[in-house]
């Protein structure tokens, strides 16, 4: 049994949709969905393809889908794209050409949306996975964290549930129970770096990428706190207390990320404290308008839904 049962207010919060996970008028498509997390992860996997997986599925992804699908912030818009390409029930696995072309955040947001619809408390966790490279590099990644009445919060990576993908990366664990030393939530990665226990250059977008290092991990600490507060933005949305290089990481920003990481580094995040820190701090709270550093479509200001 988990050491503590999930508090009623936290359970209600994570069962309810956010502006990002709400299917809205497309919710009629949720009829007939299964209720258990594993089957819902399989449904998710059958609706989406990661924009780096074209070679795995022998599918030449059109450029416009590479550029535009993954700029989609909200589940209702993802569903609109999916059903526009194939209006079959969501439980039917699509061919690659009929799937949404996204990134890890999109798999996890869909899975989270399905879980909330089924009444399972669920949230996104932003951090770094070591199972996409065999050289010790931790790739920036997003997974779903869902509540199991017997075991507490578990991490799920719906992206790994297709055996075709699993055979490529061979993670060696159950995708519905990702070990916490294989996926480090951002706060845990930040603490390891600050303690001198991990090389900051081993965390980022890709080995050798300029999008790596302590500053990059710090930005994900901010994103993970936002996700815990159901502000499930795109990974390249920036605001508030953010730095774009190690040189820009001031002592004040580091101290703030230390405070956030102390709350969020594990699964048992103090609900009230995490809510208060996020909502009361101008440098952490997601504003109505964010700066989107879109990798394909270019930087721009984006006003989020209320």
From TrEMBL:
Concerning SMART domains, the annotation shows: TGc
Top-rank lineage group of the source organism: Bacteria
What are the Transglutaminase-like domain coordinates in residue numbering? 96-160
Please name the SUPFAM superfamilies in this protein's record.
Cysteine proteinases (SSF54001)
- InterPro entries (alphabetical): Papain-like_cys_pep_sf (IPR038765), Transglutaminase-like (IPR002931)
**Which protein, by its recorded name, is this?**
Transglutaminase-like domain-containing protein
Identify the taxonomic lineage of the organism of origin: Bacteria, Bacillati, Actinomycetota, Actinomycetes, Kitasatosporales
Which species does this protein come from?
Answer: Streptomyces johnsoniae
């Amino acid at each position: 049994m988990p050491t503590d049962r999930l508090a009623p207010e936290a359970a209600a919060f994570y069962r309810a949709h956010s502006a990002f996970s709400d299917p809205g008028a497309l919710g009629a498509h949720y009829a007939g969905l299964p209720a258990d997390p594993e089957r819902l992860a399989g449904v998710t996997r059958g609706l989406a393809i990661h924009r780096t997986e074209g070679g795995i599925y022998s599918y030449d992804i059109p450029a416009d889908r590479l550029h535009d699908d993954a700029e989609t912030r909200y589940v209702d818009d993802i569903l609109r794209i999916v059903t526009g390409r194939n209006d079959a029930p969501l439980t039917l696995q699509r061919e690659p050409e009929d799937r949404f072309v996204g990134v890890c955040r999109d798999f996890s947001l869909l899975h989270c949306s399905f879980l909330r619809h089924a009444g399972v408390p669920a949230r996104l966790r932003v951090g770094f996975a070591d199972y996409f490279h065999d050289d010790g590099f931790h790739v920036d990644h997003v997974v779903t964290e869902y509540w199991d009445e017997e075991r507490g919060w578990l991490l799920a990576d719906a992206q790994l549930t297709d055996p075709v993908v699993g055979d490529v990366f061979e993670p060696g664990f159950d995708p519905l129970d990702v070990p916490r030393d294989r996926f480090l939530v951002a706060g845990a990665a930040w603490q390891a770096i600050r303690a001198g226990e991990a090389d900051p250059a081993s965390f980022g977008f890709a080995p050798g990428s300029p999008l790596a290092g302590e500053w990059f991990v710090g930005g994900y600490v901010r994103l993970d706190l936002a996700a815990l507060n159901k502000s499930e933005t795109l990974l390249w949305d920036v605001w508030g207390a953010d730095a774009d290089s190690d040189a820009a990481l001031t002592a004040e920003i580091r101290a703030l990320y230390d405070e956030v990481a102390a709350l969020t580094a594990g699964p048992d995040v103090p609900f009230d404290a995490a809510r208060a820190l996020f909502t009361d701090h101008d440098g952490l709270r997601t504003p109505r308008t964010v700066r989107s550093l879109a990798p394909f479509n270019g930087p721009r200001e984006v006003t989020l839904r209320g």
